[in-house]
Model the fold of this input.
Amino acid sequence: MNEENRTKIPQKDSNSRKGWTRRSALKALGLTALTAGIVEPVSHLNSTEDGASLKDALGEMFQDHYKRMDKEEIQEVLLRLERTYAKTYQKEIKVSNDLPLQGVVFGYALNLSKCKGYRDCVKACVEENNQNRDSEIEYIRVLEMDKGSQNMETSDHYYDAEEVPQEGKYYMPVQCQQCEDPPCVNACPVKATWKEPDGIVVVDYNWCIGCRYCAASCPYWARKFNWNEPSIPKDEINPQTHYLSNRPRSKGVMEKCTFCLQRTRKGQMPACQEACPTGARIFGNLLDKDSEIRYVIENKTVFRLKEDLNTNPKFWYYTD
Amino acid sequence: MKFSECIGSIKNKVRVWRFRKGGWESTDSAPKEMETNDLKPMSSERVKSFLNKIKENNKSPNEWSNYE
Done:
C-alpha cells in the first residue's frame, strides 16, 4: 500500500468520533434492520391485494390498547378499519364505538320449557356477528339432553335429527354467560379482554395475541379461536358493526358472544333473542326493577350453570 | 316441562383428576363429596345479593376506565 492510499483510511481519533467506529457501524446496521423490518412486511400493502395503505398498515401495527386510547385516537382507528373493510369486502362497513350506558347491566334468561332445539338463534348469531363461515365458529351451542338428566359431558352438541324436539329430549342453548367474575379475563396475560361496566366481557381483537388461555379457563366453552383467516361472503356481511363486537376479525385472535352489544347498546335486542320463534329468550337490564328479566329471576325458579365455580354468570335458565 | 323433569334426581358429577399411586387418574364416578348439582335453584336471597353486587360493580367500573 502506498502512502497516498493509506491517508484515505479514517484514523481513530480519541478527541472526535468522526468516521466509522464499531458503535456507529452497529447503530447504522440496527437502523437499517429496523427500517427493513417495518417497511418490508407492510410494503406490499401499499400497492396491491388488500389495498391498505402504508399509513394504515403502520397505524395497525402501532395501535395502542383500546382502553388507553383517547377519543381522537379511537376515532382514527375506526376510520382506518372502515377503509380497510371497505376495500376487503367492497362494501361500506360502519364500525361504531357505542359506549356502555350508565345504570345498565345486561342479563339473559332462557326458558327451557320453550326451547325446542330449532337452532334459529345459532343461525341468526352467525349472520349478525360476521362469524367465519368456514370454521363453523358458533357462539351458541344447543345441547340435546335426556329428560331427567343434566350431564353436560354426555349431552349431544351435534344432534342432527330430522325433526326436533325429539321424544324424551330437551334442549339447552349455552353461550357466553357474561360472568360477573369471569375467569377468562383473569387468564389473559395481556389484558386484551375485560368486563365492561354494562357487564359484557369483550375482546380487543387488535390486542389479542392468540394464546388461548382464556379458552382454556372458560368453563362454558364460550371462547372461539380463529384458526384460519375468517371467510365471510361479501353479500352476507353485516355492515353495522362495533369495534368490540362483530367487526371482521383476523386469523389468530379469540372471539366470543357479546350479547350483540352493537345492537343492545342502541336499545335493540340481541339477534338470538329476536330470532327465537318460541319466545324462550328473555333479555334486559338487570338494574331496571320493571324489566322482564328482573321479573323472571325474582319470581321464577332459576338456576345458573356451574354455580359452584363462583363465576357468577348473568345468564339464567328456568322452566315454566 | 316442569323444573323437576330436567333436574331429575341425577346429579352432575365433576370429573376430577386425582393422584394415585402410579400416576394421575380420571374419576368417572367422582367421590360423593365432589358431586355437584348444576341445576340447583338460586334462592331469592342469593338473587338479591347478586343484584346488589352488580349494582355496586356498575357504580365503580374497574381500572383503566376511560368512560368518564
Observations:
- The radius of gyration of chain B is 20 Å.
